[in-house]
Amino acid sequence: MAAVAVEEPEPCGSFRRYLARLGALRPQPGAERPDGDRRTELHLLFDQLISESCGPAPADVCALLAQACQLVHLDQEHLVSKVCQLIHHLLNRFQVMVDEQNLNFLLSYCISALKQCSSWTHVEILQALAALVYNNGPKCQKYLPDLLGKTGLLLQFSDSAQPDVELRRAAVRSMANLCLSVPGQPYLDESYRSVCFQTFLSVLQSSKTSDVDDITFCMLLQNALKGIQSLLNGGKMKLMQTDQIGSLLAVLKKCMFHGLPGLSIEMPTALYPAPLPQYDKRSPVKQEQSEPATFKQPGNRRKKSKGKQKKGEFGEEGKEGLGDAGNESVLGADMLKLHLGDVQNSPCSDPRTRASDVAHVPAGKDHLSSHYTSWKRISSSESEYSDAEGGIQSKMRSYQANVRQGALACFLSAIKSIEKRVLYGYWSAFVPDAPGIGSPQSVSLMTIALKDPSPKTRACALQVLSAILEGSKQFLSVAEDANDHKRAFTPFSVTIASSIRELHRCLLLALVAESSSQTLTQIVKCLANLVSNVPYSRLKPGLLTRVWNQIKPYICHKDVNVRVSSLTLLGAIVSVQAPLPEVQLLLQQPSSSGLNNSGSATPHRFNSSEQWRKALPSEGEPPDNPAGCTSSEPCWLLRLCVSIIVLPREDSYSDSDANFPSFSSVYEPCPLRLESLQVLALLVKGYFPMAQSYFLELGEVACRCMEEMDPSIQLHGAKLLEELGTGVLQQYKPDSAVAPDQRVPVSVVVTFWTMMLNGPLPGTLQNSPHATLQTSACDALSSILPEAFSSLQNDQQILCVTLLLGLNHSENPLVKAAAARALGVYILFSCLRQDVMFVADTANAILNSLHDKSPNVRAKAAWSLGNLTDTLIINMYVSTPWPSFQEEFSDLLLLKMLRSATEASKDRDKVKSNAVRALGNVLHFLQPYHIANPRFREAIEESLQALISTVQSEATMKVRWNACYALGNVFKNPALPLGEAPWTTQAYSALSSVVKSCKNFKVRIKSAMALSIPSKRECYGSTEQFCQIWSALVIALQKSEDTEDFLEFKYSASLRTQICQALLHLLSLARSTDLPVIWETITENGDAIKSYVLQYLKSGVEENEAGMHTDSYERERVLKGAIEHLGGIEKQLEGKARVRVSAYLEDVLTNHANATELTEA
Question: What InterPro entries is this protein classified in (predicted)?
């Protein structure tokens, strides 16, 4: 039997048929149909179209709608209403974007219909209009005067006087859709934006009247909130005016609590910035009415949550314990010992057992907790109101929750549109503060996070709070409550500290009460944001201990996202203001907290039986006794991170594992391992003495990570390696406070780096497909301890150098920049800097990078060139190798360095600052035969002019500071014709100008230092030039306290010290021809100079900007030398020309001696 082919209908075939039917209804000349029949057929056809489920082509929908509107005249109001319903239905259901031609026709039709048709049709017409303008705002420009002008239709219909709320809602929705932005398209003009903003604001400020349906009012508020959010996001609207900000924040706060069970607040029309809590008034009647209902909930809650205890629900016993959370006052050392016996030993213990330990407030009862029984949320099965109360009530609660979510989403956009310093003026309106005695807890974002029955709304409130906390470090830095303030008023610092404490307490309450994993993740993220910004060193200890204790159980939560965010919080704790004594105590707690005592102390040798997860005490068993721990064990956090990173996973923790492709591997989920690596790196960075006992073991962890296939794991392994290397470097710095016997031994560091170089590091450095990984590995290799590098085997040293020189030719700018920087580190190693071949190879590589097109590469290369030229100077003053180094180092390369540095000094500031440093060093290094060489002459002149122009330029202060330092270096070279060459006058003039007038005192200090460097009078040139320098220094001394920037004032003492040293240096070199001008200056300003010099002499041991100690005896010796020198010159002068500068100085010295005797007496 032959198969019969059945032709399937095209998806858009039915719409084509409708189009044809519409075409047939057009009036044909000579074949008019009765009007009544035509209307009936149109009604029938529109009804069929509205019920159509087949997905049409967008072009067909547009053509059909245009044709339908052409057939319906505006006097046929029932058909107008029906065709508008059709527009609204088809565009929304099939997500059709209308082309511009049809859009213009349809918009004109709707606007005309609004003007001509009866009011009963307006809601349907506005719904059609809203669908048409959605995402089409930029195409509607010519219709805006009709819609949003002074007498615009949308303004009329959305007016507060409009009695029909449905009509008002439809108009507000159309307006909100008009405000949506389209990427790459122009946005609404400012005038229209302002009109829309005011309309939305007035809608949100309006109150619901008794005749208005609750759900309709909720939808009206939702549309207004969406409109404001679109204006803030799409229009990049910046809220600047206080009244505008205050009005918006007031309505947002009002809507945030809309319909929240058990709470009713009345808000003022505007909030005003103030450090004190904002006024908000609760309605006592409604609150009292709500209490009987809410007190019935505990019984139901207990019944429903009975079988869910194991899944993370919290029983009544735990909840009731919250009420006693404020009864204890545990401070200081006692606070740090809190719950060591139970919490610390079981990091994964049931959170229910921790409810009573959430937070402790020293003052009085826990006010928020005392109200908590009236705030209990319904169980997770009821949280979205599926069938808890049924019907209209359920629907209404859902709509109210949507309003609250919309207000919070709008607030999130507002935060981005308000400057943080302005936003923090409203801090107390949204962030909880500890209530006063007898006063109720103020409503805040935490009220929603603790009380709202919808998990999604709670998560939204926490997101907003996180956004407020982000970047709040400077604002919160004023907080201080370490000392008890007994004053008639509460200082602002104490108010902020109180708010911080309340935030900790409320967030920890929310943590133990939350059952939704998504919301739990937001709570922990919010806590991490808070911890990152709080100045704990200024607060009484104990806050971090509570957070630390509370977060431990969530490290093994069933949801991976909760576990990751918990690790993020622990990372925030170990990185905030590290090292903090409180965190050090927490880290020193025995590692048997949740771990098996029988386990090995070395993390890389954990076996599965030792894993922290298996060591949890079972129900009813007491936890391990921490007294049995050995001090050799690593801290709990270190061992936890290592176990997550290197040990195989035991089982699947949640269905969310499926979201991550790497979760099928034998290890823990990738995000969890990455977060553990980051926490480990932060721990090493902030608390290296704690981690150094496991230095080699942590090195093995880094090795294992770099050997894996996943580039992100490799990357964070390399970052851990860099932190380990940097920690050792910090210990061996000359100014390190770590005693030599407390440092990681050099032999251990050599073993560590041998392991790295024999392991994955060389391969990682050559992993070209992953540039970021190469860059990080390069940074890690540059963190090697110089003393350890010199003890490595020769082939390993060559490997390091070869790899870095090779990477300096990478095409990737990130890798090239890192390699250039690493070479700049290696060039300072004592075992390499005297190797002429290495110095030459490095110089060529750096000069190559100095001409790179990437500014970042050039900046790193300039820094390395500065280091390389520092090496040349060091080699100059090392007696033994100098002749050979001098002979072997290429003159051509030196000339190339001079020219490249001169060229780089004209680059951007980041390059320029180190280029001028290199110029000063090279000019200092030049020998007489270089200066006599004609090839060098032009390059020397150009480089000097570059330095002088940089000193005089308007570049950043760091650049000018380095340029002054470089000129001082130039003056140290006796082979240069200082005092004779024309550039000398320019150099002295530039420095004299800077020392008098530069706004930055550190630049002035460097210029004064440079002016005091020449060791012979001839170097200062003519008498006129010498006297100009002298006069400039005297003026600079008198101006040493004049500054517009208060931050500069702290350098004024150092500036006076340096100027006084320069003046005494000039006096000790002065000639007889210089004395008249010097005497004239002393005659005019003698008293001022005398007071400053006396202050300089008595200032005792002081470290000046050069880093040299000059004690008072040395200063007296220099003064006596100047007196002796001047006395000899003055004796040679005869008659009236004789001046008495030496006598003036002797008087200064006598005054100083008398003052010293009085002090000693």
Answer: ARM-like, ARM-type_fold, DUF4042, HEAT6
- Whole-angstrom Cα distance, residue 236 to residue 685? 39
DSSP-derived letter for residue 116 is H
Listed in sequence order, the residues at least 6 apart from 995 whose beta carbon sits closer than 8 Å to its beta carbon are 1004, 1007, 1008, 1011, 1032, 1033, 1036, 1059
Picking from 587, 237, 150, 677, the residue whose alpha carbon sits closest to that of residue 417 is 237
- Reduced to 3 states, what is the DSSP secondary structure of residue 282? strand
Residues 6+ apart with CB under 8 A from 60: 12, 15, 16, 19
Closest of 104, 182, 186 to residue 142, by C-alpha:
104
What distances in angstroms separate CA 834 from CA 391, 785, 798, 883, 898, one per listed residue? 87, 18, 15, 11, 20
d(CA 441, CA 161): 37
CA distance 575 to 532: 8
Q: What is the rounded CA–CA span in Å between residue 109 and residue 69?
A: 7
What pLDDT is stored for residue 355 in this prediction?
40
Q: What was the pLDDT predicted at 382? A: 39
Tokens of 126: 């506005």
The values of phi and psi at residue 1066, to 5°, are -65, -40
Can you tell me the distance from the alpha carbon of 983 to that of 989, in angstroms, rounded to the nearest whole number?
A: 10
pLDDT given at position 1120: 86
The contacts of residue 176 (CB under 8 Å, 6+ apart) are 200, 223, 224, 226, 227, 230
Angstrom distance (rounded) from CA 1083 to CA 1060: 17
Q: Are 777 and 722 contacting, i.e. CB atoms less than 8 angstroms apart?
A: no
Whether the upstream peptide bond of residue 579 has omega within 30° of 0, thus cis, is: yes
Contact, 1019 vs 1065, CB < 8 A? no
pLDDT, tens digit, 9 for 90 and up, residues 691-703? 998 999 999 999 9
451 three-state secondary structure: helix
CB neighbour list of residue 1141: distance below 8 Å, 6 or more residues apart? 1067, 1075, 1078, 1079, 1082, 1126, 1130
Q: Which amino acid appears at position 544 of this protein? A: L
On whether the CB atoms of residues 432 and 444 are closer than 8 A, the answer is: yes
DSSP conformation class of 577: T
How many degrees, rounded to 5, is the angle at CA 81 between CA 77 and CA 87?
Answer: 140
What's the half-sphere exposure (Cβ side, CA atoms, 13 Å) at 431? 31
3-state secondary structure of 98: coil
- Helix 891-904 vs helix 934-952: angle between axes, to the nearest 10 degrees? 30
Q: What is the pLDDT of residue 364?
A: 37
Q: How far is CA 1090 from CA 1042, 1055, 1074, 1144, in A?
A: 19, 16, 20, 9
Distance separating alpha carbons of residues 922 and 889, to the nearest angstrom? 13
Residues of the chain with pLDDT under 50: 1-11, 28-33, 276-389, 591-631, 655, 662-664, 1101-1109, 1136
The number of residues in the chain equals 1161
Cross-strand pairs, 1103: 1109
pLDDT in tens, 918-939: 999 999 999 888 899 889 999 9
Residue type, 302: R
Task: Say how many CA atoms lie within 13 Å of 203 toward its Cβ.
Answer: 35
Is 633 exposed, middle or buried (CB count within 10 Å of its CB: 0-12, 13-18, 19+)?
Answer: buried
| pLDDT in the model for residue 384 | 45
Residue 1112 in contact with residue 1101, Cβ under 8 Å?
yes
Give the model's pLDDT for residue 88.
Answer: 92
| pLDDT at residue number 323 | 35
> Residue 1147 corresponds to which amino acid?
D
Q: Are 805 and 841 in contact (CB under 8 A)?
A: yes
With 0.90 as the threshold, say if the pTM is over it.
no
pLDDT for residue 144: 92
**Per the structure block, which two tokens stand in for 69?**
């509107």
**What pLDDT, on a 0 to 100 scale, did the predictor assign at position 279?**
40
* Residue 652 contacts residue 683 (beta carbons within 8 Å): no
